[in-house]
Amino acid sequence: MIHLLNRKEICLTYSLEEQARVREILRNHHIHYTVYTKNLTSPSPMDARRNDTIGLHLDRCIEYKIYVHKKDYEAAKWLLRSSSNTEQR
Question: Of 34, 5, 7, 24, whose CA–CA distance to 80 is shortest?
Answer without folding.
Answer: 24
